[in-house]
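QA checklist item 7 of 12: single-chain prediction sanity check.
[x] sequence parsed
[x] length recorded as 370
[x] structure emitted
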Amino acid sequence: MLKTIDHYLFTRYVQTALQIFIALFGMFVVIDGFTNFDNFQDTLKNASILQFWGTFLAHYARQSVMVFQLTGTTLGLIAMLVVLVQLRRGELYPILSSGVPTRRLAAPLLWGVLVLNGFLMINQEFLLPKLADSLQVVHGQSSQTLQKVSPTYDRHRIYFDGETINPARRRIEHVAVTLPFPSLSTEPVTLFAEVAKWMPRDGSRPAGWLLGETTPGISQLPLTELGRSLIGRIEQGVFIASDMTADQLRPGRETSRYLSTRELAERVRNPSPGTANLAVQVYDLHSRLTTPLMNLGLVFIVMPLILRRESNSMINDIFTALLLVGAIGLLMFVGQFLASYEILRPDLAAWLPLITTGVTAAMFAPLLKT
């Protein structure tokens, strides 16, 4: 059960983080909305005033999910700095005089970071994948808006192309599928169809694309044994088993931020040669594990620096704390860059900042005022 001091610090941390998010998101809406207002007007030129502003507000309501995910670690860090600075300015000595050790103050801050991590995980695993289509459209458009297909290969080297794709309905219009030679067909062949629809795994049937009537017909395809195991006719038409999902065929498919951890792990296990760099995906997967732990570790770096013994300059302490946290952030950026070019192993690049955070926290722990 939370004691009075725990409730006080935890509530202050949550309120501060919420206020900072509202300020950051408000600034984002003003800047992004002002910059792209012409795009809204061009896309919604035939809409009424109510429809225009309804679409505008709905767009940025969805964007709040992405902004929260991108700024979550920063929110936690700034909120912790604010709470600790307020403690230092007149509140710390009465607490110490009452017999409460300084390390005891870390507990409510850790609870605050755990709650923030929990919301970030829920956001990443459920909200972002659900809103992925809406978050990647041009200002003023909906997820039903047709987009150009960005053709690519799946892991069996089947080449998917088409005229347009509807991301929300998982449909490709005027699709062309080229089968690899000689692995799936004994001669080069391309299938043409009016529509292809993505079908998720269902029982024993694998995931893949359902085409209507194709040209040439399936009976005319010179398939190999492997080709016949992946391509066949079902009741609705020709079915091609493939891990290539609709979001991998849309423009801007190189990011994995919209995927849940389960979907990202599936992409890593079954990489497609035409999509995002596998090393980047492996790095992102490991980062899903290390980032929450690193957020906790920052408490044990920032707290000893702000509440340090025999310190006469709060500005210097804040600057030192931000400098160290910035150095860890730079290490993350450099690690991701090196991993993307396969200079450094992606798993090592993701875990190295966490190791550095732990070592740094252990070094600065003796500075804490008690």
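[x] summary fact logged: The CA atoms of residues 129 and 259 lie 5 Å apart.
[ ] second reviewer sign-off
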